Amino acid sequence: MLDYTDRLILGELRKNSRITMKELGEKVHLTGQAAAARVAKLEDNGIIEEYTIRVNGPKLGLSIHAFIEIRMESADHQPYIAFVHTQKQYVLNNYKISGEGCYLLECKFPSNEMLTQFLDSLNRYANYKLSIVITKS
Question: What are the residue boundaries of the HTH asnC-type domain, all occurrences included (predicted)?
Answer without folding.
Answer: 2-63
